[in-house]
Amino acid sequence: MKVIIVGGGIGGLATAVAFHQRGWQVEVLERAAAFTEVGAGLTIQPNGLRALDAIGLGERLRAGGLAGPLAGIRSSRGDWLVRNDVEELKRRFGPWVTVHRADLVDLLRAAVPPEALRPGIDVEHVQPDGTISHSGGTCTADLVVGADGVHSVTRRSLWPGLPGPRYIGYTTWRLIAPPQPVEASVETWGRGERFGHVPMPDGRVYCYVMANAPAGSHAGLEELCERFARWHQPIPALLGSAHEQAVLQHDTHELPLLPTYVAGNVAVLGDAAHAMTPNLGQGACQALEDAVTLAHAVDTLGVREGLQAYDRTRRPRTQLIVRRSRQAGAAAHWTSTPLTTLRDAVLPLLPNRLFARSLTPAYTWTI
Length: 367
Fold this sequence. Notes:
This protein has a domain of 222 residues: FAD/NAD(P)-binding domain. The strands form 4 sheets. Strands 6-5-14-15-16-13-17 form a 7-stranded mixed β-sheet. A 6-stranded mixed β-sheet has the order 8-2-1-12-19-18. The chain is of the alpha/beta class.
């Protein structure tokens, strides 16, 4: 049996590993010239680690150093709005790991046979029968998996009449600051903007910034430094220590809910199926879950029945996470002074268990 995977990012490579371990012939088509990742930091949450455990890679990632969940949310002045019981979250759900995205891609890529990786292939069209037209000709397989991101060619090929990704109203910057002491992972909310910092095992600090902005707008590091100069420390220090070339900016998109993740002998997963806001940090984790669930279902039940089982299992769960993620970040992007003042007054009064309960559906997944 052969599977062709369109897209060589985290979801695509995890899919390749999962099927290769089950004895399938695997081929991964990637439009970039090399299998690598340009992004910054990435936190793999307990459910994502369990997915990596299912393909034998969880312990190798943990060996690089454990991290903790979000310690809480602060105001731009530094007041605590939400404080999570970090030790209780780890006890209930398991460990977190923070890595550079490129390190996770390297780990997954090393578990795939080199001859299965085909960079520099631009996929043009995917048919439900498993036929793929691409820059090098055509190919076919028993199963095709579209793991080709938010602007997925696979998704557009199968469902050309469905709406594409929509801009959510804010843009995101990501960067890694040089080593410096910071407290545990913290997110800070202002009016229509927020800043998060996550310590990495090697002392560097992964930072992300989100701000309301027109689609396609651009701002560099100097503008970010000015924008957040009066926010609490260590935010100005982190931005001040970064290098312009370390800053990546991308508009934030969400994918309207699809009626199905499968068509014929083809499935979509990860951002190609359910691109979501980064508010819960679940994008990569859900792609990892997709990969191991799909391989298990198809290898156990056969292609057609396995695809239906994958869709029944994954679509309700991932679409729930999409909705939860959108809701989780909405209040951070309010711009009304009365609303943000009310938000900052009410959030500290809410019980911690309320926030823990909202996270439970994401963290408790098992294969």
